[in-house]
What we know:
Blueprint: E1 7-10, H1 13-22, E2 28-30, H2 54-57, E3 58-59, E4 62-63, E5 76-79, E6 86-89, E7 92-95, H3 99-106
Parallel strand pairs: 2-6
Antiparallel strand pairs: 1-5, 3-4, 6-7
Amino acid sequence: IAANGDTANKIGTYSVSVLTKHHGIPFYIAAPSSTFDLSLSNGQQIPIEERNASEVTWISGAHTAPDNVGVYNPAFDVTPAQHIAAIITEKGVIEDPNEDRIHGLLG
């Protein structure tokens, strides 16, 4: 979790956050305070692991994509803080997370 509250999680989390935002459903993150990296100002600075292309170009031993096709296969995506109602930690809850509120709780 970056200093501004942007949060990296398994791929698909961003999509769920968009849907909840659109439908007015609060979206919460539960994470230990050790997950925060306050040296990263925002989610664009969070390093995202990219998985092997074969995970999506082969299924059960069958090639499912043309040879030499470009593949982007991230393991994580970033949910922007404005989609997050609160971040729940062992130190407390940060509602409408932003840099000031995060620093207020974590120091």
